[in-house]
Amino acid sequence: MYCISVNYKNSDVNIRKKLAFSENVQKEFLTELINGKTVSECVILCTCNRTELYFCGNEDSLNTAQNLLSNYSGIECDLLKKHLYLFYSDKAVMHLFRVVSGIESMVIGEDEILGQIKLAYTMAKDLGMTGYELNMTFQSAMACAKKIKTQTALSKTSVSTATLAGNEIAHFKDKVNVLVIGATGKIGTVLVKNLLSHKNVSVIATSRKHSAESVQTKANITIANYADRYSYMDSADCVVSATASPHYTVTYYDLKKNIKTDKPRLFIDLAVPPDIDGSVAEIKGLKLIGIDYFEKLAKNNNELKLDSVESAKEIIKEESDVLKKDIAFHFFLPHMESVKNKLSENSLEEILYKFKAELPSEEFIKILDAFKSCGEKI
Amino acid sequence: MYCISVNYKNSDVNIRKKLAFSENVQKEFLTELINGKTVSECVILCTCNRTELYFCGNEDSLNTAQNLLSNYSGIECDLLKKHLYLFYSDKAVMHLFRVVSGIESMVIGEDEILGQIKLAYTMAKDLGMTGYELNMTFQSAMACAKKIKTQTALSKTSVSTATLAGNEIAHFKDKVNVLVIGATGKIGTVLVKNLLSHKNVSVIATSRKHSAESVQTKANITIANYADRYSYMDSADCVVSATASPHYTVTYYDLKKNIKTDKPRLFIDLAVPPDIDGSVAEIKGLKLIGIDYFEKLAKNNNELKLDSVESAKEIIKEESDVLKKDIAFHFFLPHMESVKNKLSENSLEEILYKFKAELPSEEFIKILDAFKSCGEKI
């Protein structure tokens, strides 16, 4: 198996976008590739971060594939060759296993890629473009990714402060009303995006700008004027502030004045310097969490993630090893009868003397080692 | 097999001389090395250009050998390690083959090394320090060196002007009287040394210095005063001049006056500017050869030698390959019965499934390849 990979590590978006074929173009590409007769099986994967072509074929297949990628992308072939990684045999297998498990992703451990690969493989399979080798390889790789997801913390561990804060908020209650102060800032934007991915969260976002386009078009979100922020605080279950303001956006006095009940409230301050007056923690039912908490959590999670990557690599090594043995054995099977006949017709001495006379030392020694294993390990 | 080599390529003479053990010390060294129990076989070679230790042993043997070399040489072990090449297994075999054939020598193709290795091996063998592996290896290596000597021009091809001139002179007649003018100069010294290595040559050497120590002590040599040179020319069969003088050392007029017969005479001029007046070639029976002739010959020989080195490497590759197969087969033989039993007790499928379950993919694939070879190549 070969793999040609153009990805965010070796190519910028201007190269990658030319290779981000639509589904119809991908189908056309695979069909033309197979029709060239040098390629026997192929799968193409196009995401915004990578275009990868996995294929099996004869010694001309690599050239065929590169030329066709050049034709379809309009990238001159020599330039394309500078922007791709090329993997062959065991290394191609390893690469697929790493990609599908999220180790090669920009955000390590993200699991969107597994779904994308499943779609890519299914499309090729439905077109009849896959055979024994790619079927085995993709199925093993996807099973391995699921095993990694289950057995390690790789895809469960976030290292982003905004994501961690989002998770904290979403788990605060069954349904959470959140007021986000500073929703158009750097952290605020990511936080709002994350909050909206939780179905139990609805967001009121304040902005100093009148038209907060970046958040306005989303569902489950209400835009409020910054000056009116206190009027939303009583009904909110959670208030997050992440502005670049040098002053408090939430003071004890104004808050106390505006809230009517002592229901459980979660206040999160993601700003440096702090946006929320620390005294608000004295208010009954109110829990205040600062940015330090999330930064420490992110740091711990980063260590956990590095450990998880190591565990994932171990799992990949084991699973890909089983796959390689299966494939090798599959391709050995047609030789079985002939080998058995030769072993029954000739004494072992005769066989070895013939090998000794005909083979160079490296091959002869491998054969002796193989037979020695029969004596020792069976 | 291991080889530890300290040679002119990695160490200067100050290091090498500390490792140039006398024969008695070599014997003592080998005995102590074997008595340490980690080394099972060993041979030591000490020449002025290299000290090399070849040995077989367990995983501690390398440390034992290095420490003992350090003790015997008085070179601190860390320093010694910086000054040695270490070869193991196939690479150690290849190194011995290259050394014994003269490819690793300072003067490529010199064959003194073959005799030195034969002595080193014989000494170790007589002490009972060698076993199957070193006996096979040294005997093959020496046989290979002889084959190279016979089948290539490697050791027959000189690239030194002085040596080529010396050979020309020695082959001029059955017994040759030579007058060397300028015997203490750079070329003269080498020439005289070469001439004295031919048994049929006697030398009269002139020198401007009164005491020409560098040549005086040799047999077959008479020292003459430069001013008297013409008085020796009639009896000389050959006259060589190699001085740095800006004037002719041999003029037509003076020569003509001093020679009485027109017997065959060989005059060789190795000086730049020329020492011998070109007109002497007009004298009947006299053949004059200039330095250009030898320089051209040396250049041709150098090309021939480079070709010969390539041929020698080919022969080494073939011969060492045979050796490696012999050794591998020798060490396989004790396993033969057990392998045969396993092959008769189990079906090939059973054997392969067991291997598949127990071995990592690389080993399993090697075994499949070995059995596939039985089907295809027997």
UniProtKB/TrEMBL annotation, chains A, B:
Residues 174-295 form the Quinate/shikimate 5-dehydrogenase/glutamyl-tRNA reductase domain. Residues 4-152 form the Glutamyl-tRNA reductase N-terminal domain. The keyword NADP applies. Homodimer. Possesses an unusual extended V-shaped dimeric structure with each monomer consisting of three distinct domains arranged along a curved 'spinal' alpha-helix. The N-terminal catalytic domain specifically recognizes the glutamate moiety of the substrate. The second domain is the NADPH-binding domain, and the third C-terminal domain is responsible for dimerization. During catalysis, the active site Cys acts as a nucleophile attacking the alpha-carbonyl group of tRNA-bound glutamate with the formation of a thioester intermediate between enzyme and glutamate, and the concomitant release of tRNA(Glu). The thioester intermediate is finally reduced by direct hydride transfer from NADPH, to form the product GSA. Catalyzes the NADPH-dependent reduction of glutamyl-tRNA(Glu) to glutamate 1-semialdehyde (GSA). HAMAP family: Glu_tRNA_reductase (MF_00087). This is Glutamyl-tRNA reductase. It comes from Ruminococcus bromii. The gene is hemA.
